[in-house]
Design brief:
This protein has about 350 residues and is of the alpha+beta class. The chain folds into two domains: about 220 residues, 3-hydroxy-3-methylglutaryl-coenzyme A Reductase, Chain A, domain 2; about 90 residues, 2-Layer Sandwich (Alpha-Beta Plaits), CATH 3.30.70. Helix content is about 40%, strand content about 25%. The chain has twelve helices and nine strands. About 45% of the residues are buried. The model has no long low-confidence stretch (mean pLDDT about 95).
């Protein structure tokens, strides 16, 4: 059978910014590459970036990080499943010895589970260094399963992935337990800057966030989400930096929170499922390597630090676009006017 030639699918890419970012992970002004067919996105993120430069910056905090793989095992009945599961969970040290045979960087840090009838859904959660970790955790799980089946012969194999992971699907479990980098970013914007640069007021942004992002998403049946368009910025950032673009499905689950503080606007984006890495699959392509280097994510650092830096920059980029769009939507006609001007 003749192999099909690998070709390229060019996507317009532009550098936007710089974005002023603060915090323990990133504390500098950084321009970001964004690859997208929705070219007004560059201008939207750019406006948010210009606002950030007039403040103390977008403070980014990585709350947690982990990559999960849920294996599916079967017992004879629920009672047997509970007994085996309790024993397995008590043997983290033994399991990490097994994991160490699969990778220098993977480390099992937690396990969560669900029992349905005689089925055991065991969600294994790992740290994975600077890689996003899809293959790393699957490889580790592939080592863990035969060990479990040897130690617990009453159990049977069902699947390497039982969908309790939950990979590339919008689920509650990822928002609750986290998958990838859990990042919170925050900015404090004066009333003057809101009015001059965003053409709105703190009160209007807070009001629209409640009515659109919170209530609107709730009545639409949204799942652990309350945002306007996280997915736009995530896709553009993911494609520019060699990430698995399908992970924007869970990545776009997140919450925007806004308050009026005194005379200022406090605006925050929480992203609990940012799955990304600075090494691994999707890297090695020239433009990706150049972009990662431009973002300072190819430096010699302790394992995991480059990936955390990348996630912090990504989250700040999301905030810029989210802030700009919400501000635009407080004014009738502004959103469509921008699209007509920039796309037509």
């Amino acid at each position: 059978m003749k192999a099909h030639k690998i070709t390229q699918a060019p996507i317009p890419m532009r550098t936007v910014g710089p974005i002023k970012i603060s915090g323990s992970i990133v504390d500098e002004k950084i321009s970001v590459p964004l690859a997208t067919y929705e070219t007004p996105l560059w201008h939207s993120v750019g406006r948010g970036a210009r606002v950030s430069a007039l403040t103390d910056g977008i403070k980014t905090t990585v709350v947690d990080e982990r990559m999960s793989r849920s294996i599916l095992l079967e017992a004879e009945d629920a009672s047997e499943a509970v007994q085996a599961l309790n024993s397995i969970k008590s043997r983290m040290g033994d399991l990490n010895e097994v994991v160490a045979q699969s990778s220098r960087f993977a480390k099992l840090i937690d396990m969560n589970s669900q029992i349905v009838a005689n089925l055991i859904y065991l969600r294994l959660e790992f740290t994975t260094g600077d890689a996003s970790g899809h293959n790393m955790v699957t490889n580790a799980a592939d080592r863990i399963i035969p060990w479990i089946l040897t130690e617990y012969p009453q159990l049977r194999y069902s699947s390497i992935s039982g969908n309790y992971c939950s990979d590339k699907k919008a689920t509650a479990v990822n928002g609750i337990l986290g998958r990838g980098k859990y990042v919170v970013c925050e900015i404090l914007i004066s009333r003057d800057i809101c009015e001059r640069r965003l053409k709105t007021t703190p009160e209007k942004v807070v009001d629209l966030n409640i009515k659109k992002n919170l209530i609107g998403t709730m009545i639409a049946g949204g799942l652990r989400s309350a945002n306007a368009h996280y997915a736009n910025m995530l896709l553009a950032f993911y494609l520019a930096t060699g990430q698995d673009a399908a992970n924007i499905i869970e990545g776009s689950q997140g919450v925007v929170h806004a308050e009026v503080r005194g005379d200022d606007l406090y605006f925050s984006c929480t992203l609990p499922n940012l799955i990304m890495g600075s090494v691994g699959n999707g890297k090695g392509i020239d433009f990706v390597e150049d972009n990662l280097a431009m973002l300072g994510c190819k430096e010699v650092r302790e394992p995991g630090e480059n990936a955390r830096r990348l996630a912090a920059i990504c989250a700040a980029t999301v905030l810029c676009g989210e802030l700009s769009l919400l501000a635009a939507q407080t004014n009738p006609g502004e959103l469509m006017e921008a699209h007509l001007k920039l796309e037509r």
